[in-house]
Amino acid sequence: MRSDGSALSLRRWVRSAGFAWAGVSQAYRTQANFRIEVWAGVLAVALALLLRAPLAPILLACALVLGLELVNTALEAVVDLVSPELHPLAKVAKDAAAGAVLVASVGALLVGLAVLGPPLLRALG
């Protein structure tokens, strides 16, 4: 569908946001890893609030993991569309995208330990 030409159109933004939300909803319904990552993020944010720990690093780490999981899901769908049969390059693309999610997840875990670990130890000690 053609744009109305205005980048500042509220109608255009709402329509685009609807498409984006449909992608997030589809990923939540169909991707087990995305659901796990969403709930891990909710837990991390709740713990940060409870411990009065800095929220920004936790939110950024969660957003990075979830965003990359969405990109991974999109890439897998496109690869499956253009290469329904097994192909070595399709495997490389899918594995690299999954690797990006893994790297972000390990980074998020380290951020969580660095930000939430000290106040959690103080609360427990």
UniProtKB/TrEMBL annotation:
<dbReference type="InterPro" id="IPR033717">
    <property type="entry name" value="UDPK"/>
</dbReference>
<dbReference type="GO" id="GO:0016301">
    <property type="term" value="F:kinase activity"/>
</dbReference>
<dbReference type="Pfam" id="PF01219">
    <property type="entry name" value="DAGK_prokar"/>
</dbReference>
<feature type="transmembrane region" description="Helical">
    <location>
        <begin position="99"/>
        <end position="121"/>
    </location>
</feature>
<keyword id="KW-1208">Phospholipid metabolism</keyword>
<keyword id="KW-0444">Lipid biosynthesis</keyword>
<keyword id="KW-0808">Transferase</keyword>
<dbReference type="InterPro" id="IPR036945">
    <property type="entry name" value="DAGK_sf"/>
</dbReference>
<protein>
    <submittedName>
        <fullName>Undecaprenol kinase</fullName>
    </submittedName>
</protein>
<dbReference type="InterPro" id="IPR000829">
    <property type="entry name" value="DAGK"/>
</dbReference>
<keyword id="KW-0418">Kinase</keyword>
<comment type="similarity">
    <text>Belongs to the bacterial diacylglycerol kinase family.</text>
</comment>
<keyword id="KW-0812">Transmembrane</keyword>
<keyword id="KW-0067">ATP-binding</keyword>
<keyword id="KW-1133">Transmembrane helix</keyword>
<keyword id="KW-0472">Membrane</keyword>
<keyword id="KW-0594">Phospholipid biosynthesis</keyword>
<keyword id="KW-1003">Cell membrane</keyword>
<feature type="transmembrane region" description="Helical">
    <location>
        <begin position="34"/>
        <end position="51"/>
    </location>
</feature>
<keyword id="KW-0547">Nucleotide-binding</keyword>
<keyword id="KW-0443">Lipid metabolism</keyword>
